[in-house]
Design brief:
- By secondary structure, the chain is an alpha/beta fold.
- It has two domains: 183 residues, Rossmann fold (3-Layer(aba) Sandwich), CATH 3.40.50; 115 residues, Rossmann fold (3-Layer(aba) Sandwich).
- 43% of the residues lie in helices and 18% in strands.
- It is elongated.
- The structure holds adenosine-5'-diphosphate (ADP) and 6-O-phosphono-beta-D-fructofuranose.
- The site of adenosine-5'-diphosphate has 17 residues, from α4.
- The site of 6-O-phosphono-beta-D-fructofuranose (F6P) has 10 residues, from loops.
Length: 321
């Protein structure tokens, strides 16, 4: 393998730049030529790529977002789109591609690998932490810390005004951001898509806690767990409270990566290159399990059943009582 390319795809995540930096510098140290593809699969189809040198990734480790840009690309889901992407790679003599993205991007990588024989390495980059084969995805730690910082501010004003607050965080199918930020932020109620919840019970519990003299309460809601306005309307009416809503939205996706994400990104970037240059390696997903960086075949990684941290959820239930 003499030439590789790197792209970022799907939703951006803090740490993507640090991963591209690590992969670029590792590849250069092995004597490879490295290309950065702009705007994910779309850029590959359109031939938007530039050579990366050591200096191209200077001053990148601390930056959120992705300097390569990212995009969603419906055309790449088709065989015709994948063929165009492959033709770009052929024209440049590029034999391997490193993809930093979520499960959709990984599915694209698997197609490119299965249909055109391109060796692909997937680095899990998404704030959602929704790839079951790896303990953590890039950007998750930073996003949770961003939510935590917002919760800390909220707690100050909740205490002063003796209020109930609801914070809505990202996570359509995966409640990890809500679960981790909820526990670390001392939330009384954590509402996530993986677990059913009873608004009647929550309302009763709020009434009881008021009777006990508790003056403020925090609810953390994952966006995929329910409609925030309907939930708040129901509880307000049932419990006679006036919940203040904070919708954090895309602030969770930006920001300088934490130390944990920078180190993870760096380890992932190095491993992706070490795997891609092996003669006998197959297209794989890079991940971390028990603090060990792993590479497993892409199809195996994508077939992992969705997992959920029941232990942590159990802890949240104990502590919120
Ligand atoms: P993420 O990678 O964060 O999960 P998406 O699900 O939006 O984000 O996927 C990013 C891109 O990956 C899509 O715009 C599309 O180009 C490609 N992709 C997604 N799913 C598939 C699929 N099943 N087959 C081929 N390509 C896919
Ligand atoms: O997958 C990352 C994520 O931030 C999800 O948590 C969120 O539901 C979604 O992307 C938002 O996507 P968009 O930026 O396209 O609105």
């Amino acid at each position: 393998m003499k030439k590789i390319a790197i792209l970022t795809s799907g939703g951006d995540a803090p740490g993507m730049n640090a991963a591209v930096r690590a992969a670029t510098r590792t590849a250069l140290s092995y004597g490879l030529e490295v290309y950065g593809i702009e705007r994910g699969w779309d850029g590959l189809i359109k031939g938007q790529l530039n050579k990366l040198e050591t200096r191209s990734v200077s001053d990148m480790i601390q930056r959120g977002g992705t300097f390569l840009k990212t995009a969603r690309c419906p055309e790449f889901v088709t065989l015709e789109g994948q063929r165009k992407a492959f033709e770009t790679l052929e024209a440049y003599g590029i034999e391997g591609v490193i993809i930093v993205g979520g499960d959709g991007s990984f599915r694209g990588a698997k197609d490119l690998s299965d249909n055109f024989g391109v060796k692909c390495m997937g680095i899990p980059g998404t704030i959602d932490n929704d790839l079951a084969y790896t303990d953590y995805t890039l950007g998750f730690d930073t996003a949770v810390n961003t939510v935590l910082s917002a919760i800390s501010n909220l707690r100050d004003t909740m205490q002063s005004h003796e209020r109930v607050s609801l914070v809505e965080v990202m996570g359509r199918h995966c409640g990890d951001i809500a679960l981790y930020a909820g526990i670390a932020g001392g939330a009384e109620y954590i509402l996530i898509p993986e677990k059913p919840f009873d608004l009647n019970q929550i309302s009763k519990s709020l009434i009881k806690s008021k009777l006990r003299g508790k003056t403020s309460n925090l609810i953390v809601l994952a966006e995929g767990a329910g409609n925030r306005d309907e939930i708040v309307k129901f509880i307000n009416e049932m419990a006679g409270v006036n919940i203040k809503i904070t919708h954090l939205g895309h602030v969770q996706r930006g920001g300088s990566p934490t130390m944990a994400d920078r180190i993870l990104a760096t380890r992932f970037g190095v491993k992706a290159v070490e795997e891609i240059i092996k003669d006998d390696s197959v297209s794989s997903a890079i991940g971390i399990r028990g603090n060990k960086v792993i590479a497993i075949p892409l199809d195996e990684a994508l077939s992992y059943p969705k997992s959920f941290n029941e232990d942590l959820y159990g802890i949240s239930q104990i502590l919120s009582k």
